Queue: 3 jobs
Job 1
Amino acid sequence: MEADKLPPEIAEQVKKAVTILKEGGVVAFPTDTVYGLGALAESQKAVERVFALKKRSKTMPLPLLVSDMSHLDELAATPGPMAWRLATLFWPGGLTLIVPASKKVPKFIGGGKKVALRIPDDAVALAIIKDLGKPIVGTSANYTGRPAAVTAAEVEQCFGDRVDLIIDAGRLPGGKESTIVDITGQ
């Protein structure tokens, strides 16, 4: 869903988020269950900011949020039939697939030979990614090891003005952020 299909006040925030992401900023936005932090995946400076904001070790890779299944071929070196089957069954939604990374995946997201991919099942998150036209790193809006934010106020309380934009979509349901399936091995 593109920004023009959202309520006008949210659509305006999505457009602002896309501009901020293109400029190397970090935004907080709703996802399927919790608020997430996002940055343009190809911007090393922005990605490093996400690691710093979350107080997350760079040895813990950041997942990439994409807008459609074509990114599986682009970002996975060899997605394989299992990746396609799971993606077809569970995307968009709370499934993150760990697949062999293609050469197009920036090393600074921390994955090395692997990359975690997901298509979120949230209209705002999808509008941001589609309107941007590129993958974003997307991770829960919280300090690593702490509960994820389910309201914009919780994001604000955690990060304050260290995030360039917080899109307030009300209270989210919470729960498990994503199920992770590593299909790089047996």
Note: The beta strands are 27-30, 35-40, 64-65, 95-100, 114-118, 136-140, 165-166, 179-182.
Job 2
Amino acid sequence: MSERGSYAKGRAKRDEIVDVALDLFARMGYDRTSFREIARLAGLSQAGLLHHFRTKEALFLEVLRRRDDRNEQHYDENLGHPVSVAGLVKIVRHNSDEPGLVRLYVAMSAESTAPESPTRQFFEQRYEKLLSDVALDVAKKQQSGEIAEGLDPAAVASLLVAAADGLQVQWLLNPDRFDMGEQLGLLSKILSGVSSEIRK
């Protein structure tokens, strides 16, 4: 097999592993998903799995990247463009269908706050992009009159993203009595109402 063919085959197997892990985390949860089960369903030994992902953290991060990419493709109206406010609300609403992935995200984002955490760089870059995307959409909404110009787009974006993360924790603690998508949508509506008051 050519070097290019070998690389393509390895890339395909790596993608298959991530797909398997993504499905297991979504259904079984972070704590109940084992490396051994991921390897088995991907048709590999544990040693074979470690050839593609040397640590669990590396695989978990790739799963979160795949989740982010999939969510943007399926749940954001600005496909191929920065994440919008409406897209963020839709993504959070969809997350209620995948408690295992939400739990994985919450656990790893908390762990990333440690200076030596291997996940820190991923989350720093993720937040930087997400905040920039949402702030850009807020600025567009200010131009159209949906959000008051007197509000700082970066501050509004930070509040929305912080609310999304905090709502996920509340939902994990009380999923039967808490709708995080509706709550974040309410905050978005409140911003529009605040804008109307500011313009008066």
Note: The longest helix spans residues 3-28.
Job 3
Amino acid sequence: MNRLESMAEKRLREAIENGEFDNLPGKGEPVYLSENPFEDPDLRVVHRLLRNAGFAPAWIEERKDIDASLAAGRTKLTRAWSLFREGGKSPSQAEWARSVKEFTELVMDLNQRIRIYNLKAQSDVFHRKHIDVKRAIAAIIEDAK
């Protein structure tokens, strides 16, 4: 492979030196990256119409909604932690426990939505990992300290 690569590099270098790349069509013009060259041509027009109208395919909108719901849940639990810190009065402990329970229920619901989203996503690259409740709560507490 090294021999082939060095031969290709040699030919490219010679072509550059001979000026073979100087007058290519589109030289000096911007490269438009808004179109995906790997996109199915049958869906290209549909995706362009959706994008121009401010929408995205349903599975992308679903991911945005999942992320927004998780962010709202984290914000709510962060506020609860600042109000009902551990070591406080007993009513605070009960309120903190209630907030943790609500967050846990939210995460369970989001994990179910993530399972469905992962089935809709067009590639494994776009799959979303499930949310670990204990880690999320520990991260919120650690960040609030």
Note: Residues 58-144 form one domain.
